[in-house]
């Protein structure tokens, strides 16, 4: 039984979608005016996994993530670059898609753009005015907070306290300082506008998502996702305008992921402490980023640092090394065929139950990872390179690989050829360390020659030199192999 944390109730609840066997998901996507930074991709990685897990346990999922291509930041970038706003947004939508593909994430079912939903936005604003939930102020249209008594139910904030906290100059056209824009009349010099019953203008930020949800799914969805920083005011305002318009709850479950910290501070462009995803993936394998996201719980703050990057390398190396070991041993004697090891099957069935129980408890990836780490430890204690291969050993290797692939499939991790992955991982680390693979190969070969000549003192000197270079060497009956210490 799947249980999820619902931000709306602040409780872990049993998951029951509106329509049995079917799940609808809408996640707030990026505002596309620049390359996206690593913090922006935590949500896509988390919800890629959530969608995968929902499908794994039997649901049919329709998943939409939008692109905000109408925004002040886009207009500012367009003015700076001497381009149209839609040229800027189109450019960075394509760059986002490249990053998304590099990360190996599954495509969404729908990627709505604000500019394609202008009729739906205008229709929704018109309906809110007719229902007297919103009012026209010149060429603007504002939502009237006083007409939605439940305002604040998601963020658990009270309107009176919010009013007291307002420190900006109050707009005289608003009935309350907390009222927010549904439609903004075009100001002089603004290059992007659409015709509407209230004159030329463009939508406010919050109405955009409400209209896209309504246009794709109707009045209600099962899951609405987004970063924790969007809970207020964006999601709070979405609830107000959507529910005031339809009379129904917008979403049954609200799922928010937490932020990345960088050097102890929230990662944000305003603080200037961001790394864009393209830069990171040029330097590091994309699985490193996915590991950093998924090895911590989605609702906890995640640290983004050199230490956590190194920890991701170490974790991936442990997983892939065990998989490489399994493949090496099972393929070392083609004449030996597997005979099912029932005892080991029972052991791994228990591990999969631990994984399932963890992921069904609010998508608890850390405890699932812990269960697999323990399975790896036990596997490494019984399987060795160069060991005698029996039908039971082949069976254990095959079953172990099946478990790893099965676990990885829901995470979009661990799907690459292990030896190839480890080779590439080491190549990236060698670049960072300033070493060349051929130089390491030469030292390892010279050490092997010293061992063959029984000059163990010389061999130990080579081992120390390699260790100082952060290279570890393992000796097996079939020869020596090396890897970068992670």
Notes on the structure:
This protein has 486 residues and is an alpha/beta fold. The protein folds into 3 domains: 3-257, Rossmann fold (3-Layer(aba) Sandwich); 305-416, Anticodon-binding domain of a subclass of class I aminoacyl-tRNA synthetases (Four Helix Bundle (Hemerythrin (Met), subunit A)), CATH 1.20.120.640; 435-484. Helices cover 48% and strands 14% of the residues. The protein has helices at 42-56, 72-81, 85-102, 118-130, 159-164, 205-217, 231-246, 277-283, 286-294, 306-330, 342-359, 365-382, 391-411, 418-433, 437-452, 456-468; strands at 3-6, 11-14, 22-27, 60-65, 134-137, 140-143, 180-185, 201-203, 221-227, 251-257, 260-262, 265-266, 302-303, 471-476, 479-484. Strands 4-3-9-10 form a 4-stranded parallel β-sheet, with helices on both faces. A 4-stranded antiparallel β-sheet has the order 5-6-7-8. The mean pLDDT is 93.
Short structural summary:
The chain is built from 16 helices and 15 strands. The chain has about 475 residues and is of the alpha/beta class.
Would you tell me the structural class of the helices and strands?
Answer: alpha/beta
Strand arrangement within the widest β-sheet reads: 4-3-9-10
Percent range for helical residues?
40-55%
CATH topology of the largest domain: Rossmann fold
Question: pLDDT below 50 for ≥5 consecutive residues: which ranges?
Answer: none
Number of helices: 16
- In the CATH hierarchy, the architecture of the largest domain is 3-Layer(aba) Sandwich
Give the class-level CATH name of the largest domain: Alpha Beta
